[in-house]
Amino acid sequence: xxxxxxxxxxxxxxxxxxxxxxxxxxxxxxxxxxxxxxxxxxxxxxxxxxxxxxxxxxxxxxxxxxxxxxxxxxxxxxxxxxxxxxxxxxxxxxxxxxxxxxxxxxxxxxxxxxxxxxxxxxxxxxxxxxxxxxxxxxxxxxxxxxxxxxxxxxxxxxxxxxxxxxxxxxxxxxxxxxxxxxxxxxxxxxxxxx
Length: 194
Known about the structure:
The chain has one helix at residues 2-24; strands spanning 36-42, 48-54, 57-71, 81-91, 96-106, 112-124, 131-142, 149-162, 172-176. The chain is mainly β. It has one domain (35-176). The longest helix is centred in the first third of the chain and has 23 residues, at 2-24.
């Protein structure tokens, strides 16, 4: 009888948690695939670069902001403006790259529809200075009329390419939610930048 009482108590506790979750969440779930491509131009005056020496060689931390239009078969994304801001740290001994940043999606009226943080890893070709990255973004959706968060998210893996990082007019081109063309990159990072 004692075991049954403990089991009933545990079931009641978990049942109460489940009921609490059900009460706290309203509406039906909605999950849909998202994909698109982008061609973003650098924003004037946003490029920064700082060099430093790490325990295994020379490093550079570059910052920049890019802005352009998304092309997508999904009307929810097609024509939106993407503003991508990032700071990347490059190991000039190996070409390994790590970075963090933010992304903002704006509608035709220049109202924000989603924004959030991004992390990325990649590689710099040390001969051509082409930068290829893969990243992950979690953008919180918001009502463009009120600016209030809706509770929805755009969660995506993406890939990007800058043909020549030395040429500050080089565009950031890439895609999200499509078949990847860029290698998958992984890095170990101590969290420091130049």
